[in-house]
Amino acid sequence: MKRSLDSALVLVDIQNDFCPGGALAVAKGDETVAVANSLMPHFPLIISTQDWHPINHVSFKERGGPWPPHCVQGTQGADLHPALNRTRIGHYFFKASSVDNDAYSEFEGTDDKGRSLDEVLRSYEVTRLYVVGLATDYCVRATVLDGVSRGYQVYVCTDGVRAVNVDARDGEKALEEMSSAGVHLVTSAEILQSELAGFAPS
Asked: H or E element: which one contains 120?
């Protein structure tokens, strides 16, 4: 029987295609890697998520979607950033992996056993989620708001996220929306200095 872990760190889509040089690069997206790596030793449960699109995914411009092809299954662009420390990651989730279904929230993804993120988190009795990753105004926003709707206390690490900013204030607006929904906006320094996580650093 799994012991209760209470808190989990969720790494949202820290993939090559969302980092500088990638097919759908987020400005300074790679800066989220160092923040994620600094936080991981302080959490008992680490979840990593990835966009995992088929080559003709509905979100791609060729199909009338808003985005260039990105994070195509099995390509280097879909891989996690090479500098991300994977040794502490306990579970991997993949979303938007069928041709005609798009998904921004990581709660719509599944792991290699077909389990949902919510199912795995509840199996550990997790109640608090700490979120870093890409992008603030899309998958981070959707995941965080979905988490709140499911009853989790959610903390967004503001120096560990970056926005697409199709419009200049999209990232800022997303943070404001999350805060209004009851999400805690914190920095990595505040997380590391706080007892909120409820466990000692290793």
From this structure: helix 117-123
Which residues form the catalytic set?
13, 95, 139
Contact in structure between 26 and 63 (CB atoms under 8 Å): no
Position 195 pLDDT exceeds 70: no
Checking DSSP bridges between strand 91-95 and strand 184-186, what pairing results, if any? unpaired
Q: Per the structure block, which two tokens stand in for 84?
A: 């991300």
- Tokens at 31, concatenated: 């800066």
pLDDT above 70 (res 197):
no
Sign of CA dihedral 132, 133, 137, 141: negative
Strand 153-162's sheet: what is its strand order? 91-95, 46-51, 7-12, 128-134, 153-162, 184-186
**C-alpha–C-alpha distance, residues 175 and 23, integer Å:** 25
Give yes or no for residue 126 having a pLDDT over 60. Answer: yes
State pTM to two decimals. Answer: 0.94
Residue type at 91 in one-letter notation: H
Q: Please give the average per-residue pLDDT across 33-54, as a whole number.
A: 96
Please give the structure tokens belonging to residue 141.
């926003």
CA 147 from chain centre, in angstroms, equals: 12
